[in-house]
Amino acid sequence: MSDDEIKQLCLMDIDKILHSYGKILKDYPPMPLATEVDSSLLTKRVIREELNFNRDDLKKNASDMLSIATLEQKYAFNKIVTAVYCDEGFFSVYGHGGTEKIFLWNLMFTEIRSRGDIVLNVASCGIASLLLSNGRTAHSRFKIPLNITEYSICNIKPGSPPAILLLKAKLIIWDEAPVDGLIG
Q1: What are the residue ranges of helices labelled H in 115-170?
Q2: 6 alpha carbon, distance to own chain's centre
Q3: Between residues 82 and 98, which one has the greater pLDDT?
Q4: Sign of the CA dihedral with 110 first, then 111, 116, and 119 last
Q5: Distance (Å, rounded) from C-alpha 62 to C-alpha 107?
């Protein structure tokens, strides 16, 4: 990435932060303004941020975590990781509070990322997202409106950086996912 592209991305980030406070870069005349940046550059940045980790460290961490996992956690881990690489779809893991589901999520996250793949960790609430490695709220990650109506949709546009990130994700872990309509 060129110095100018880095500068433009930084200016865009500053402008985004200022927007959250009801301001824009134009409110500060000495500051340069961001010019339009190619969307592929934004996509590359989003993907790069999700791949910005040390794979060797993750491999060691995954090995260490697996060595202390319970038999049930190892079973679920093996089944799910195998399914991820065989494109076998959706899993739901149920367990009462205190059954170390977060440990399992973080183990799978660490293992799959150690292979160079993207894993998105989300939770339905902010506190739960803090317990996940690189976790975010589902509302933030999937642009889910906070006030949902029958006409609500996620605000991710086809071809946008978040849409491409979702397509490239090998696994999405959603802690405390609302599954009422998914299980029949």
Answers
A1: 126-130, 138-142, 161-168
A2: 22
A3: 82
A4: negative
A5: 6
CA-nearest of 142, 121, 118, 143 to 52 is 118
CA 155 remoteness from chain centre:
16
Domains of the chain plus CATH, in order, are 3-37 (no CATH), 55-175 (3.40.50.300)
State phi, psi for 110 to the nearest 5 degrees.
Answer: -65, -45
Three-point CA angle 85, 120, 38, nearest 5°:
105
Nearest to 117 by CA among 169, 162, 80, 54: 169
13-49 pLDDT, tens digit each: 888 888 778 888 888 888 888 777 666 777 877 888 8
What does the chain come to in residues?
A: 184
Q: Are 137 and 129 in contact (CB under 8 A)?
A: yes
Sheet holding 136-137, edge to edge: 136-137, 118-123, 169-175
The partner residues of 174 in beta bridges, in order of sequence, read 122
Contact 101, 135 (CB under 8 A): no
Q: Is the pTM of this model over 0.70?
A: yes
Rounded Cα gap, residues 53 and 100, in angstroms = 24
DSSP state of 171: E
Place of tokens 């592929």: 40
Residue type, 1: M
Q: 171, 84 in Cβ contact below 8 A?
A: yes
Q: What is the largest CA-CA distance in the chain?
A: 62
